[in-house]
């Protein structure tokens, strides 16, 4: 069970309007037989351990000027497909991929088939990647200076929102088939994301989906979120996505270089 995100939790009552709401209280979740103070203590302990690992990852990535993206979404929104197309579009620009799934090495194999290096993490019963897992995966990769590191998180719109991996930003991948209300139902994920990629727009004419409402709902939960409409299948929107990645990678590279010079000067 993931105590931090509250999956598998039970208990707690709120009978207002006949609905049940287990997110009340300072911990934002309920576990039968456990009070809010104890829950917060457990959450704080788990997250502070995670933050130490994530901090070490971030320091290593900063030293090399690597731009790291944590791709978060529900299963099947098109993360691996988008990654394969991204690798193709980036040509010989340096990059590496960490793949997270509960089971199988299927996605890492799909990535390796493009010629890119990839490491698979299987989380077993775990519902998200954490900083410790990602640190070990990073050791297995040859991560070049100034490259992009893609981390495909476990398909889950809840738990990965709470875990820092040392990345520069989270990018939420949504597909038009999921429905416009998902940002409102799973706000934590979209609050944590810098960019939302609205994927599978080739399917929009076949679904009763209002793309403007989808975007408006994203901005209701996160007014600062950037949004890109894209189809990994047809390639529409790919140019904007690649430009977004390159601009952020170059900015990170410049900031890291400046910082490295400052730190060397201070020695
Ligand atoms: N029509 C359409 N299908 C897509 C698109 N992107 C991904 N898919 C399909 O969606 C399914 C799930 O994709 P996958 O990349 O495995 O999703 P992941 O679980 O998020 O990694 C596959 O059948 C893909 O071919 C897209 O832009 N348009
Ligand atoms: Mg995948």
Automatic annotation (TrEMBL):
<keyword id="KW-0862">Zinc</keyword>
<dbReference type="InterPro" id="IPR004392">
    <property type="entry name" value="Hyd_mat_HypB"/>
</dbReference>
<dbReference type="InterPro" id="IPR027417">
    <property type="entry name" value="P-loop_NTPase"/>
</dbReference>
<comment type="similarity">
    <text>Belongs to the SIMIBI class G3E GTPase family. HypB/HupM subfamily.</text>
</comment>
<feature type="domain" description="CobW/HypB/UreG nucleotide-binding">
    <location>
        <begin position="69"/>
        <end position="228"/>
    </location>
</feature>
<keyword id="KW-0547">Nucleotide-binding</keyword>
<keyword id="KW-0342">GTP-binding</keyword>
<dbReference type="InterPro" id="IPR003495">
    <property type="entry name" value="CobW/HypB/UreG_nucleotide-bd"/>
</dbReference>
<keyword id="KW-0378">Hydrolase</keyword>
<keyword id="KW-0479">Metal-binding</keyword>
<protein>
    <recommendedName>
        <fullName>Hydrogenase maturation factor HypB</fullName>
    </recommendedName>
</protein>
<dbReference type="Pfam" id="PF02492">
    <property type="entry name" value="cobW"/>
</dbReference>
<keyword id="KW-0533">Nickel</keyword>
